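User: I'll paste a sequence; please echo it back and then give the predicted structure.

Assistant: Echoing your sequence first, then the prediction.
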Amino acid sequence: MDKVLDVDLTDDVRLSQIATALSSPLRTSILKLLSERSMSVNEIAFRLNVSKSTASVNLKILEEAGFVMSEYQAGRHGSMKLCSIVNETLRINLLSARSLSEVNVYTVDMPIGGYTDFYISSPPCGLLTEDTFVGRDDNIGSFYCAERFRAQLLWFRQGYVEYKFPKEIVYRKLESIEFAFEACAEAPGYRMEYPSDITVWINGKEIGTWVYPGDYGGRRGICTPEWWTLDSTQFGDYKRWKVTGEGSFVEDVMVSGVRLSDLSVEKQDFIRFRLGIKEDARHIGGINLFGEKFGDYPRNLTMTIRYQK
């Protein structure tokens, strides 16, 4: 994957540096040389038939623009300055500064039945739409049914569901990525005290585990339809899982040191989100995942990406 230098019209200084760096045939010749391999200042000067001081001055301009990096390495006669290409692609976003300032948040609403992969070790498991079962209760095969896209409640004891979220291409630096959903444990009927360790992964990276205290019932969920019996799961806890440059959090509680830089978000056209119960979890209490028409919160699984202003 190419290393990309992103710049937009709000960054006047960087644009000026880039324009200056590319305005000289000598500097573009230096970039052509370095695209072959890393070279010392002396070698660049020799190849281009210029003095070492001239090569150094122009390399500094390329460094300031973000094209080149230099580091000192041991040589035959002491240390030498070795220069390399640091960004292989230049990408300039020509949106107006006003437009860019408004593009700070990107949100995707995902139906809970929109998973692209799943694994369920064994029943109990199942899915419900707003008005009926999807397939048959406690049948893993029901998770393949086309009607699953209408699901408003799904549950299983051990395994995972995985979603692929589209990613808007915005040439801005990420500030955070957040997933929010309503969930609870999965017990026969319901049990208010029935802990379950629910784990979340983003782009294949485990970001943390949160203990959901129970499988909630005893009163009808605010959004739960009347036909669903009161002796079954009714509502869950709505939690926001966020990854920033500092770590991973559930609400304001840090659950791991995994940072945005660990997720390789910029290198893919989509974002993989998985949640489930690990085989070695301390509390294998299952999961109920709620859509917008079940539970206490009229919301689906939601991804929110925030960009730096």
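Helices lie at 12-22, 25-36, 41-48, 52-65, 97-102. The two ends are 26 Å apart (CA to CA).
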